[in-house]
Each structure stands twice: as structure tokens, then as C-alpha cells.
Amino acid sequence: MPLLLLAAAVGSVLAGRGVTRLFEVAASSSARPIVVTLAVAPVILACLVMAARAVGTRRGLRTRVRVAVVPAPSFDPSDEAVVRFGSGLSRSRRALRGLLDAPASAVGIEIGSDHDGRLTYALELPGRARRSLATAAGAYGEIDLRDTPDTPRERPTGTVARAELVLARPSREPLRVTGLDPDPLAGFARAIESLRCDQGDTATVTVSLLPVTPGKRRRLRRRLLRQARRSPSQTQARDLADELLDPPRQGPAPPGELVQRRIDRQALANKLGSSEPLFWIQVLASVSSPVPGRAKSGLDALLAAFDVFAGDNHFRVSGIRIPGIAFLGSDLPGRRGAFDRRVATGLFRPARRRLVTASEIAGLLKPPTVKCPAPNVVRSIGVIPAPPTALPTFTGQKKLLPLGRVASQQGERLVGVPLADTFFSYMAGRSRWGKTETAIGQFLHLARAGHGCFFLDPHEDAINKAKAYLAEQGLRDRIVEINLADPDRQPSWNLFAAAGRSPAEAQQQVDAVVDAFASTLRWDEHNTRALNLTTQAAQALVEIARQLPPQLAPTVFQIPTLLANDDWRAAAMPLMAAPTRQFFTDRFPRLADEAITPVTNLIDRLRVAPPVAALLGSPTSSYDIRAAMDRGQIVLACPGSGSTRDRLVANFLVYDLLHAALPPERRRPFYAFLDEVQTYDGASSGNLAALLEQTAKYGLRALLFNQNPERLTPATVNAVTTNRSHLITTALNAKAAGLIAREWGQAVKPEVIANLERYTAIGSVTLAGEITPPFLIRGIPVDELLPNAARPDLLPELETAIDDTAARKPVADTLASIDEHDQRILDHLLNHGPDGQRPATRQAIRPTR
User: Fold this and answer.
1) DSSP element (H, E) containing 653
2) What predicted TM-score, i.e. pTM, was given to this entire model?
3) Interior angle at CA 432, CA 429 and CA 433, nearest 5
4) What is the CA radius of gyration of the chain?
């Protein structure tokens, strides 16, 4: 500031008659040093200002950021919204320091082409103005601001055609106000469509706008009005200025002059008669192509797109035309470097300084709208609300469930939701869109954090991937695995094992088996006979198991024996409770022989599969989900996904888990990840939905996954939408997307859900007891969520630990004893009758009917 005041003082001395006095003073030798100082000071000041401006500009150019602006398909702003957006862009220039870094403070609007020949729209501006841009974008609402990576731009290859456009006439004469319907960017889209981008053609139009500060804007308006009054070439403009400043003069005028005066008055009023923001403008266009001649024709097409703005003023190419010989423009060897530098860095240094208002360039101040019919436009899938700011950042906290990445004005971050708010979660979406990857990441985080977890994967791929992250010491000792894809080793699991179980727990065993059959075979109220027969058989075998030694407990393969072999059933009846015994003595004989077929056929299919038979055929159990829940173990289960037999095993696992969680004393949280949930959701009067609603009270936290919510029963869909803590979806078909959109109150349109990109999802979660609006989530791969956690080198040690924990044994050993188990039980019944009765006569089992 002192330097500026000194320069002003020197200027006042040198002005007017002070020059003569200065020479008189200079004649005195004693005053000569003062005169020299006063003469040199402005030069020093000018050098300092120029140096500061150069440094400020260089620094400003290094901090510029590029933001891709992607419109929604329904993007349709009003004229007022565009002007408001332009006003918001004025914040890119600082009021106090703007003089020093003005060449680096312009907002660059970049209209370009991608590799697919689509029109892209981006903004480049100073980094300090990034938040101001987000605020200004609020005038639109249906755009997506995406920060682009800070990577050097690709240099054009082949032939490059360049052109700088300037306003052909003085700034006081306005461009044509085109409006937004049709969209002025349609011409640019058509020009880009004519290029061969798949062969290396590129096109870029950069419109740089340097905002004019409010004080400068007022001074410029006054100056333009004075220029209009003094213009010697346009009497009409001079008269128009007088009319704007003074009352209109009286007296007749020629008709032609009146028409011209009205046109000029309207033009000048449009330019200077509003309070719209003003911008200095710089327009640079270039096209490159590996094919000679194609760049020039592509540039001509781009320049033609600017014709829509032609009115009292218009754009023309800057340069000198030598008629019939050449055009000396931006492609001259001496000017190419400066042109390319301005494009690459965002430097604002136009060939001619001209002013425009926001309305004049409204067609450039927004991305393509719905009024742009060109198909080659990069658009987003639609409008998605912003993520809640209260979402906690996930850095591996044990009390958070990882979700994925969300983007905000502060950038992208990995977020999670509190486990305290996680009771019941559902995620839908098509295959290979990241749904299973999300499930694996969440499961592994919880398991590694010490929580008890259950992961049911019908396809085995997820389990195999997860094992490498669970192989460390301290983790592998907690793992129990049931993998029916393994033909060699299986643990043992007797559905009717009663050792150490209370009568209430024994009843839950019966309910779990019946629910599994009903869900697998889609039994409902119309299948009462099959349901009752399965219930009575399961109840009888549980009662028999409670009175036999553990090594003689009946298994699921004794159901056909009980129903089809009269002698075996007669020997077992004394061990049944009175109601069960009465069923088999009074009502069962009245049933037709084929009544048992729906039950026995499916069990026969279990028996012919060696891994399944080995798992379910042992009288004792090494797998106990109740114990796993109490101990916080990690359960991996793969029942297979191909047949009805596999679905029955999967249902055995799920319903055993759900019923085991019911006792009120079991309240330790246990997280169950159930993929392909429609497999366990049969038409059995909403059993799955009812159990899910109840088990959440007792510590079971169910996380459900499947491809389509329409494949669930209505009862389960209602349970999902009513009681869920978190609801997340990747892409769905149109009908299913409509179902989820209705659940969210149309905050997201169905077409947005249907068009989600791979590895992205939309989710609504519970935070502090409140359900959030839906927001966009970008999936994170497991290897990024848990970096350096995979230990595939420890998989042999993991398998050894599972053998010990789950007591896996060779399949052949179990199969050898299954066929003899009926006879062993009968031998015991015949030789050890109930108290007070004589043992029955020993006899062999007769063939089943």
C-alpha cells in the first residue's frame, strides 16, 4: 500500500503543469537525489506489482481443480437457475487479492469428447472456490459433481486445429439470448458425434470466464454507456444513451430511425439494464485427429455450433485474414504454444477483452439438459440425495459395520454404521454387482473383531475367499465349517440329538425340522397332512432320542423307517409320549400308503449324496449352533445351490439357527449372513418373517441378501420393509426397483435404481435410531477394506484347526455305519424295554412297506 500511495503521488506531480516545475527543481543539484528517487519509485513499484502478479498467477494455476458436471436425464433448469449459478461462479475471484492472481481465477467451462464419442461437461476453477461451486450447484439440484483425478491431460496426437473466438463487436452490443429450449449444447453434441473418437479424434472447447467484481461492474456499465453516447459511427446508439439518461425528446422522427432506435434501445438495455453478473470471456477450441484434414473439418463443425449465439454481436475467430492467401490465427507456429498453455493450465489471457452477461452465455453455463436430444451425452443415472454428514468414518472400529465409500464436498471417505443400530439388514441387487463382496467384507470385519458370525454361502466361492482372512492364530481356532462340496471330510450333525437339551430346546428341534421341510417344499395351509405327518415323525424321534443312549439317537434317516416299518415303529412306541403314541396307534394306520411319500422321497435323496449322508447320518453331533452362538464362534456353511436336496440342507441350517436364538437367556449378539435368502423363504405362512422379527430381541442380527425382493414371500417383504435397520440395493429390474423406490417414498426414482453402475449401491440406514434418506454407496473390495490381512500361506493350518474344532472325520467312516443304525436301535429297544415291561422278543426288521 505505501508503494501504491507513492506511485499516486508521483503521478500527481507529473500530471499537468507540475512537469514544468519538476524540471525547474531538477536544475538544483541539491534536489537531484530526490527527483531521481521520485522518478525511479514508480518503476520499482511497477516491477514489484508485476513480480507479485506473476508469482500469484503461477501459484493459482497450480491449485486449480477440475470437476466433472454430470446431469441427470431429467435435468431441466430454469433461466433464473442458470443466472443464479452464474452468480455463484463469481466467488472464484477474490475481492482483495484478485488483482494479483486474476489470470488464474477464471472459471473454465470445458466441453469435450470422451473415448466413446460422447459430450462431456466439466468445470475448472481455483481450488479455494470448490465449495463455492457446490453451493452454486444448489441452484440446479439434478447434477452430480465429480472430482476428477489430478493427472496430466493427454497431449493431442496427430494433426491439431486450433481457434480462439472473440466477440466481433464492442462489449456494449449483446449476443443473442438463446434461451434453454432447444438446448444450445445440442450443436456441440452433433459436432462431436461427427468425429471418430474410437480412432483417436478429440475435441475440446474451453470457455473461460473471469468474474467482474461488483465495484468494477458498476464502473464498466458507466463506461459502456459513455461509449454508446460518444460513438461517432452510430447516431442511434448516441441517441439511445441520451434516452436512457434523459427524458425522450419531442418531435417526429423518420419511421426507419424509430425502428432502429427501438432495436438499439432493446439491445443496450439487455446488456446494461440488468443486475446480472458480468464476465470477461475467453473461448478456445481445438480438434485433434490422426487423419490429416479431419481435424480442420471437425473444428469447423465446432465453430458452427457458436452461430446460435449470433445477434447484435457474435463470435468470430481471432486472427488476420489475407484474402485468397491465408488466415493468420492460433495455429501459427509462434502462437500454438501460448494457446496450448492456456488450455492446459487454465490461464486467462484472451486475445481481446470482451464482456458478456450470464444471460448471453446461459446455454454454456449448464451441462446438457433434457432439451438436448443428442444421444451422445454423458449423463448420470439420476438424482440421489447426498449422504448424511453424521455417518461415521470407518477406520476398522469394532463397533461399526462397514458400508462402503460415500462422496461429499470434503471428498470421498469410507463409512460405517454403528452395530448398536444394526438389528436387521437387507441388501438386494443383481449378480456380479458387488452384493456378495459387501457381505464378505462385513462378515470378515465382524469375525476379526471378535463377534460370533454365521455365513451361509450356497456357492462356496465366498467361503473360500473368506478363509484366507481367517487363517491367523486366534481366528482359525474359532471356525466351524460345514461344506458339502468337500467329498472327503464332514462334521457330524444329528437333527434329533437330545443330549444335554431341555424339553423346550427339544421342541425347538422339532419346529426347526418341520419349518425346513415346509420352506423347501413350499408347503402351506393346503398341505396340512404332510405338515402334520412331518411334525409327528420329528416329535417321535426327539422323544425316542431323549431316552436312548447318545450313540443310539435316531437321525433324520430314521424318519422313513418310523413311517414305513411297522415292527420298528411298534418297538419304539413305548418311548413316545402319550399324544405322539396315540397318533401312531389311532390315526396313522388310517392314512394311505402314499401319504408318506412326500416326506420319505426327499430323505431318500439326502441319503444317496455321500457328503450329506455323512453330515446328517451320525447319531452324535459335533456341530451345535447353540454352542457356537454362546462361544462367539465363526460358522462357515456351504449347503450347495443346485437341487431340492441342497435347499433342504440349507433350510435345516437356517431354521436350526433361528430357533436356537429364541431362548430369552441367549442375548449375546450373533451375526448371521444369509445369501440367496429366497431359498429359505417358502410359502409356509411367513415362518421366516416371524422368526426374524422374534430373534432380533434375543441377540441374533440377520443380514439378508438376494438378487430380487420380488422372489420373497409377501410376509417376508413386509418384515424387511417394516423392521429393517438398513435397506441397500444395487441395480434391479424395473418392477423390483419400483418396489424399493416406493419404500423410500420416491426419494430415488426407480429408473435410477435400475441403472446403477457396477459396484455401486443406494442405501438407507439407521443412525441414532433415525432412518436416513437413501444415498449413494460405492463398494469397496475386501482386499482394500482389510489390506494385508489375507494369509493364504496359512490355509493348511486353518484346515487342521477346523478338523479339531468341528471334529470332521472321513465320510466313508460315517457311511459304513448308517445302514446298520436302524438295527442297532431296534436291538436296544428289544433288549432294554421300558421300566416295568418285559423286553420284547428279538427279531430282525422286516422290509418297509
Assistant:
1) helix 644-660
2) 0.78
3) 50
4) 40
